[in-house]
Write a structure and sequence with these properties.
Length: about 180
């Protein structure tokens, strides 16, 4: 064979090996991400929308929280914007507060947000939560926004902003805390 053809074949072989290596690394990275997260979809209950209690528009954002069932405190927070139900979601280690290692299982809470303040109730905001803790690595979670939002992490009525079990759940200066820095 001519030297030019040999060089060309070697370059092609090196390129193919590099692409294969990169793809293998990406597959391994994705598997690790899936193992340390919960993914699935969030949808809006059509009866809630038909009743006029839900007013979800493209300018709303979806707030996802992983909540420790023992302490009832959020351990991870993720925003999805714009919100277009049914919305694909993933929340996990990359969203953990204080870079703490997530071990799970966790309650998954979803809240629509119209005004940039998570626990300030705005008419039309809706809420959904898993009925039981969900293990990390779950890939086909189906979460339904099925209640009008009442202003707290567990959707109880609250007396004032951030009252009840949500008080102190997010760090001072967080964009979701009144007076926090915007995202």
């Amino acid at each position: 064979m001519k030297p030019k053809i040999v060089v060309l074949l070697v370059l092609i072989a090196v390129f193919i090996a590099a692409v294969a290596y990169a793809l293998l690394r990406e597959v391994n990275r994705e598997e690790a991400t899936l193992a340390s997260s919960i993914s699935g979809t969030v949808d809006l209950d059509p009866q809630l929308a038909a009743s006029g209690q839900a007013d979800v528009v493209r300018t709303d954002r979806l707030v996802l929280l992983l909540v420790d069932p023992q302490t009832q405190r959020p351990v991870a927070l993720h925003f999805v914007s714009p919100l277009v139900p049914p919305q694909t979601i993933r929340i996990g280690q990359a969203d953990a507060r204080d870079e703490a290692q997530l071990k799970g299982p966790y309650l998954v809470v979803a809240i629509t947000d119209k005004d940039g303040e998570i626990f300030k109730v705005t008419p039309g905001e809706v809420y959904g939560r898993t009925p039981a803790p969900v293990a990390l690595g779950t890939e086909e979670l189906k979460l339904v926004l099925n209640q009008p939002f009442r202003g707290s992490l567990f959707n109880e009525e609250v007396a004032g902003p951030m009252a009840g079990p949500t008080a102190g759940a997010l760090p001072p200066g967080h964009p979701a805390v009144p007076g926090g820095t915007p995202m």
